Amino acid sequence: MMEARYYEKTEEGAVCLLCPHHCRIKDAGRGICRSRKCHDGILYALSYGKPCALAVDPVEKKPLNRYMPGTYCLSLSCTGCNLSCRWCQNSDISQVAPEDVDSTSLSPEAVVEMCLYRGLPSIAYTYTEPFTWWEYMYDIAVLAHDKGLKNILVSAGYIEKEPLPRNSCGPPPPAKAPPMDACRRQRRNCPRRRKGRSPNGRTHDARPAQARKP
Predict the structure, then answer these.
(1) What is the pLDDT of residue 187?
(2) How would residue 171 be classed by pLDDT, with cut points 50, 70 and 90?
(3) In the chain, what are the domain boundaries?
(4) pLDDT tens digit string along 101-130?
(5) How many CA atoms lie within 13 A of 210 on its CB side?
């Protein structure tokens, strides 16, 4: 298992600092996203290297209007989401634990090589909430950026400022944040979001967003 980033140890386990939920996770417990588990005071990213969905999509499906029009991207997803929207079209993979669905073992290097082999210019982190598998997304994005591939993030944006991706997704965060070339922020209104605190200071509305299923 891959040790998670952005957490602190506590007497009872660990507190996750990735998103504003700040889940206090006891030993053997999990956070709201179901993808982060505490064991002996160490928080682990359970879905690392275990994508449950891989597809080749037109970039317009992300949906991006004027970004590399007419091209295709490698769409990738792991299980997990830190929201629980009632209309989620991908709840079969966003509202479950990694062990509850079929997945494949794929290293970040293998993902990038797959994209290059197929001649795809970009990788999209999509379908669920990519921030719940931040470590896997980060490692892929760095390798992809070094190979000249573009990184596309489709997210609700419910994340703390420090791990927020750099470049297209807002104010410049620390250099250790993953490089993103294009970002599509999904608009959601979720009962699990902490009352009175919207992600990154923005207000969500209740319009459903385009997702994996047509």
Answers:
(1) 52
(2) very low
(3) 2-45, 53-201
(4) 999 999 999 999 999 999 999 999 999 999
(5) 9
Instruction: Look up tokens 């997803």; give the residue.
Output: 77
Query: For residue 100, what are the contacts with CB-CB under 8 A and spacing of at least 6?
Result: 79
Residue 142's H or E segment, with its range, is: helix 134-146
Separation CA 44–CA 197 (nearest Å)? 26
Beta strands in 107-201 (DSSP E): 122-125, 150-155, 166-167, 179-180, 182-185
Peptide linkage before 178 cis (omega within 30 of 0): no
pLDDT tens track for 143-169: 999 999 999 999 999 999 889 876 544
- The answer to whether residues 12 and 27 touch, using CB atoms and an 8 Å cutoff, is yes
User: What's the pLDDT at 167?
Assistant: 56
**106-109, Cβ contacts within 8 angstroms, sequence gap of 24 or more:** 106/49, 106/50, 106/51, 106/54, 107/49, 108/49, 108/136, 108/139, 108/140, 108/143, 109/143
- Location of structure tokens 């769409």: 75
**Which DSSP letter does residue 116 get?**
H
HSE of 177, CA atoms in CB hemisphere, 13 A:
22
Q: What's the confidence (pLDDT) of residue 165?
A: 75
- What is the C-alpha to C-alpha distance for residues 30 and 104, in angstroms, rounded to an integer? 22
Closest C-alpha to 83, from 120, 132, 46? 132
